[in-house]
Amino acid sequence: MGLFDRLGRVVRANLNDLVSKAEDPEKVLEQAVIDMQEDLVQLRQAVARSIAEQKRSEQQYNQNQSEANKWEQRAKLALSKGDETLAREALTRKKSFAETAAVLKQQLEQQTSTVDQLKRNLVALESKISEAKTKKNMLQARAKAAKANEQLQSTLSNIGTSSAMSAFERMEQKVLEQEAKSQAVGELAGNGLEEQFRMLEGGSDVDDELALLKAQVQGEAKALPGPVTDKALPQSTSSQSSTSSNSVVDAELEDLRRQIDNL
């Protein structure tokens, strides 16, 4: 195989590939219908010309046949008058017109057959064009649906890696982080508040225990001989419950020391 043959085949292959890729089904179908309609117009024109030629041949045939009949009548008239020479001349004219009419008759028969065939082809082409238009509309609708579905599938396949989707994922992660920070801060603040309340509750327990001890000591002091003054036991008031737990504990220890010394 020669180099030019191989090169020509490669060029044709590339051109065919480019043409195939450039073909749009909707446009190609539309153009195909337009081409068929142009063919229909040309066929109609051909049928019209053939019919016109048929009519013209028919007129010529009728004229020549009429002339042949007319000269035949004249030959009969001349022969009836006894003029054989004139009758012979009339028959010669009649023969000429009759031969021309015979040729025109054959031509007319051929033209009639051709016109009939063209008419059948015209009807078949019109039917095909009508069918092609219906099919074209259906195929164009299917092509549009296929194109729309392809675009939708392409969008769905690319949406996971698109910048917009990545932005949504980043913002979602940031919101989760902010919620976690807020929850942690809330828990820390709640723990501090609970600790303060526990301290207050602990202080109240110490005050209650101190009051109980004072009552016990006073009861023991009444049971023992010798006066026990109320000065040895400091009075607990509602204002003392607001002091810190360390001061209450120190005061309790001091009272216990005094009570022991008085025993």
Automatic annotation (TrEMBL):
Pfam families assigned to the protein according to its UniProt record, in alphabetical order: PspA_IM30
Composition skew (Low complexity), residue ranges: 235-247
Keywords for this protein: Coiled coil
Compositional bias ranges of the Basic and acidic residues kind: 254-263
InterPro entries xref list: PspA_VIPP1 (IPR007157)
Annotated stretches, region: Disordered: 223-263
Coiled coil: 26-74, 101-158
Similarity remark: Belongs to the PspA/Vipp/IM30 family.
PANTHER family: MEMBRANE-ASSOCIATED PROTEIN VIPP1, CHLOROPLASTIC (PTHR31088), PHAGE SHOCK PROTEIN A (PTHR31088:SF6)
Descriptive protein name: Phage shock protein A, PspA
Native species: Gloeothece verrucosa (strain PCC 7822)
Taxonomic placement: Bacteria, Bacillati, Cyanobacteriota, Cyanophyceae, Oscillatoriophycideae
